[in-house]
Amino acid sequence: MSECLFCKIAAKEIPAAVVYEDDAILAFKDIFPQAPVHLLVIPKEHCAGLGDMTPRITAAVGRIPQVAVRLAEEAGVLEAGWRLLTNCGPDSGQSVFHLHFHLLGGKPLGGKLCQ
């Protein structure tokens, strides 16, 4: 997807503060963090959301929780607590239509996801 922001980040056309990368997954710091630790974890291959996954993307996404645990440990939030979530569609707050997961931590996040 030539106009997709996250595809451009994955292709190294736009710089990002990358904290993890392998053949299929990229993780980088969110530029508008909502918590002291706010990372975005994406499959490198374009996929608009969970409802659009192909078998190859499903395999990559299946590894994201394991990557998230590693990142939470490296960020120092593994024991205190952290959150991994994705938004699907505009009503959920999704603004970049490339499947991505938010890893949030570093402060009490509370029980509510919405205000």
UniProtKB/TrEMBL annotation:
Position of sequence motif Histidine triad motif: 98-102
Domain HIT, first and last residues per copy: 5-115
- PANTHER family registered for this protein in UniProt: HISTIDINE TRIAD HIT PROTEIN
What's the protein here called?
Histidine triad nucleotide-binding protein
Q: What is the lineage of its organism?
A: Bacteria, Pseudomonadati, Acidobacteriota, Holophagae, Holophagales
